[in-house]
Design a protein that fits this description.
heterodimer; A: mainly alpha; Rna Polymerase Sigma Factor, Chain: A; Arc Repressor Mutant, subunit A; 2 domains; about 0% strand; B: alpha+beta; 4-stranded antiparallel sheet; 4 strands; extended
Chain lengths: ~200, ~290
């Protein structure tokens, strides 16, 4: 439950009240931006943009959803916009980071286990970022972030039934991507216009 | 149970929404169908992999909080922007409005020039008219003249309309109030808006944009929704693949409305939604098609 006094003050332009309202959401916003963007720099840019955008639009927040859901929605929109503008997949950015010597997150204990864990996690992440945004986003929100269908529907402004079908199709597409050799995967990622001509467009 | 029915239950199982009874049916089917059993195993493993990504997050950058809070003072918190007024005038409506303005203008000028007696007006108007004429009829005529000038062009200002739509898209996306797909439609077409001319001789880019905008409007008026699966470019011409959900009792009207739109390559019913209330269509819209 959002503190009504903070909300009122923030809406009146009190930056300190907004800071108090938004700061607890930082880990959540950082996490979703990281999963959506796949690299530190872009995730940070999008997360920063989300907080500033929320601040500049706080007066328009009507309170139908909680502040955190509203902020989360803005963050997801920022990420989708950034991905569209840059037209780069998150995995490309991760590759670029690795090439330029950036450290990737690692949580496993031993060197060999660490390597296998990282490789497998990276394969899943790569496959996930190969999916079209309309499948990848609800899949991340559901399976990674643990959001319910109703929450995802609210965040993405979609009917819950659409969210459900996209997650289901996303799972099947991801399974296929992970079971196919990389060469086949590249074929799947060929230009969408060719896929449309192939008649499988509705499955995108 | 068919394998198709099994998949519906498997989704429910993975989502944690399956009933104990359905879970028993699911397991029974698996015992008889190795392919479905394999699907269950692989999707469960995938689910675990995806859940595992939740822990694979680097720590929040140390300066993260300081960065955005420092920018708060530079970013003024605006009040709610008034939503741009979206008025569409068809060419016929504009001509009718212009004609009305001209008629009123002529009557006003006639009254001003003291020819009231020669004009056939109603008795009610006659009673009020003399005092109006003597005291202050001018503002009415001025207002009508301004109105007739404002709406004088026989064609709607498509460029202005598109600019309004772009502003709306920007506003909605910023406020987090528009679905990303809808926002994509608007944003992907912003580039072509600046070159828009008259509606009658619309370029392929304009026709493409107008069709997308019309489809969004149609879906809204049918209580349905539209999302963009992809917008691609091939040899300089764009194609949009749309997923459209229309309530079943509105599908006939929706489909017949599409007849008037250009650029639509196909609109194919794909499936029903889980609740059976909506029909889902896959639609392809291509620039340059008539």
């Amino acid at each position: 439950m959002d503190d009504p006094v903070l909300v009122q003050k923030a809406k009146a332009g009190d930056a300190k009240a907004f800071e108090a309202l938004a700061t607890p959401c930082e880990p959540m916003i950082w996490r979703v931006c990281w999963h959506m963007m796949g690299n530190r720099e872009d995730a940070q840019d999008c997360a920063q943009e989300a907080f500033l955008k929320a601040w500049s639009r706080i007066s328009s927040w009507e309170g139908t959803a909680s502040f955190s859901t509203w902020l989360y929605r803005i963050a997801v929109t920022c990420c989708l916009d950034a991905l569209r503008k840059k037209k780069v997949r998150a995995s490309d950015s991760v590759d670029a980071m690795q090439e330029s010597g950036h450290e990737m997150p690692s949580t496993a204990p031993g060197p060999q286990e660490s390597l296998e864990h990282t490789e497998h996690t990276q394969a899943v992440r790569d496959a996930l970022s190969s999916l079209p945004a309309e499948q990848r986003t609800p899949l991340i929100l559901s399976c990674v972030e643990g959001k319910s269908y109703e929450e995802i529907a609210l965040i993405l402004s979609l009917p819950p039934g659409t969210v459900k079908s996209r997650i289901s199709r996303g799972r099947m597409a991801l399974r296929k991507l992970l079971s196919d050799p990389p060469n086949d995967r590249n074929k799947m990622n060929s230009t969408p216009s060719k896929q449309m001509k192939g008649g499988a467009s509705h499955d995108l | 149970m068919t394998c198709e029915e099994y998949r519906v239950l498997l989704d429910q199982l993975l989502d944690g929404t399956i009933s104990p009874e359905d879970e028993k049916k699911l397991l029974l089917h698996e015992s008889e169908c190795p392919e479905c059993a394999e699907l269950h195993t692989s999707l469960s493993a995938l689910q675990a992999d995806l859940s595992g990504l939740a822990d694979d997050v680097p720590p929040l950058p140390e300066d993260f909080h300081a960065q955005w809070t420092a920018k708060l003072s530079e970013t003024p918190s605006e009040g709610r922007k008034p939503r741009p007024l979206k008025i569409r005038f068809s060419p016929g409506a504009v001509r009718a409005l212009a004609a009305c303005a001209v008629v009123v203008l002529v009557v006003g000028i006639t009254l001003l020039s003291g020819r009231l007696n020669s004009v056939n007006v109603s008795p009610a108007f006659n009673i009020a008219a003399p005092s109006l004429l003597e005291e202050a009829p001018l503002p009415q005529s001025t207002a009508m003249m301004a109105l007739s000038q404002a709406y004088a062009p026989a064609e709607p200002d498509v460029e202005a309309e598109m600019a309004v739509e772009a502003a709306e898209a920007e506003y909605d996306a910023a406020a987090g109030e528009m679905s990303f797909a809808e926002s994509a439609v608007m944003q992907n077409d912003t580039g072509s808006m600046k070159t828009a001319g008259g509606a009658a001789d619309a370029s392929p880019a304009e026709a493409f944009h107008e069709t997308l905008a019309a489809i969004v409007d149609l879906c809204k008026s049918s209580d349905g929704s539209v999302s963009v699966s992809s917008i691609t470019e091939n040899e300089g011409l764009r194609s949009a693949l749309l997923e459209i959900r229309i309530p079943k009792d509105h599908t006939d009207a929706f489909l017949s409305s599409l007849d008037d739109l250009a650029c639509i390559i196909e609109c194919t019913p794909v499936e029903e939604d889980a609740g059976g209330e909506y029909q889902i269509f896959s639609m392809t819209v291509r620039e340059g098609e008539t």
